[in-house]
Amino acid sequence: MFSGMGYRSITIEPFCKEHSRFYTEIKERAITGYGIRQDPADSQFAFVAVAEGKEAGIIFTYHNQFHPFCTYVSLMVLPSTDRELVAAQLLEAVSELRVVYPLQISIWDTDFAIKQALVKQGFYEIRSTYDVHIETSKAYDVRDEDVLMRRHSDYQLLKLSELLKSEQGEEELALLVKKTYEYTHRVNPPEAFELFRWKAFLHEQDVIKQGSYVVIHRTTGRCAGFAMLHSTSDEFVAELGWRGVASSEELDLITLVTREQIKYAIDNGIHQLKSEVDSTDPYQMEMLNVYPFEPAPAWVTYHRQR
C-alpha cells in the first residue's frame, strides 16, 4: 500500500480475469504505442494498480524468443490519474521479481510522467526509434545517380531474386545480414541462431525480392551491402527493411541501394515507403540522413539493470 499525492492508498494486485475489462478500457485510453504486443493474461507476471478502490494502471512482463536476454515490460496508466505516482508503484512491483535482466520498456518521447517514473526507478535510455515514412514522389531527386555510379563503378547491383539463385551468394548475404543485425542490436543482442535461420529471413513471404537489392564487388565477388523491401497490408505502401554494408568505408552504398528501391517503388505504383529506424543503426540512420522522410515522434527504449 502507498499513500500520498492526493491518494489515501494505492495497492498493487496480481492481474486476474476480473481485470480483463479494465485492460480493454486502458488500451483505448492510455498513452501507448506499438510496443504493446502481448496480453497480460498470457504474461509471465502482471499487476494492476488500484487507487482509491479504482483500477488506475497495469504492468506486465513478457519475453521475445528473438531477443531472449532481457525481460520486456509493458506499462499503461490512465491519463486521469497521477500517472507518475501510479507508474512508480507498478515499476517497483516488477523490480522485486526474479526475472532475466535487464528490464526493457519503451515509451513515447513525449510521455514525460512515465519518463520521470522510469528515471527515478533507475532506468536509462538505450535508443530512440523513429516510425517514419516518405512519399515516393518526393524521394527521387536527392543524389545525382551518375556521381553515385562513378564513385561505385567497382560494384554491381543485383536484385535479391537474382542473388538467391546462387547458394554461395545466399550464404554470403545471410552472413552479412547476421553481422549487421548483431552490430546494430548490441544493447539487446539476438539469440545466437544458426545460419539457416538468417537464410530463412531472405525467403520470408513479405520480402519483395524484386525490390530488395544486394551490392557485389566486381573484382572480389564479395557481398558489400544489401537492402530489404517488404510488402504491407496496403498495396500502395511498402516497408524499407534491414540494410547494411560490409565496412564503414562503404556506408554511402546505403544511398545507392535505397535509391534503387525508390525507383522500384515508383515503377510499381507504390506511393509511400515507411521504415522503423533505430538510432543505434548507422545504416538506417544514413538513409534517414539522406532522404526527406516526414518528421515523426520517437519511441524511446529504456533499460534497467538488476
Structure description:
There is one protein chain. This protein has a 13-stranded mixed beta sheet with strand order 1-2-3-4-5-6-13-7-12-11-10-9-8, sandwiched between helices. It starts with a strand and ends with a strand. The chain has 10 helices and 13 strands. The mean pLDDT is 90. It is of the alpha+beta class. It has helices at residues 20-29, 83-95, 112-120, 136-139, 145-151, 160-163, 167-184, 195-201, 253-267, 282-290; strands at residues 2-4, 7-14, 46-51, 54-62, 71-77, 103-108, 124-135, 155-159, 213-217, 223-231, 237-245, 272-278, 298-304.
- Gyration radius from CA atoms, angstroms: 23 Å
For the biggest β-sheet, the strand order reads 1-2-3-4-5-6-13-7-12-11-10-9-8
- The assigned structural class equals alpha+beta
Strand percent estimate:
25-35%
H-E order: EEHEEEHEHEHHEHHHEEEHEHE
Contiguous low-pLDDT stretches (5 residues minimum) are: none
Task: Note the overall shape.
Answer: elongated
Largest sheet: 13 strands, mixed
* Termini gap: 23 Å
Quaternary form: single chain
Count all strands and give the number. Answer: 13
Q: What is the typical, i.e. mean, pLDDT? A: 90
With helices defined by DSSP (H or I, 4 residues minimum), what is the helix count? 10
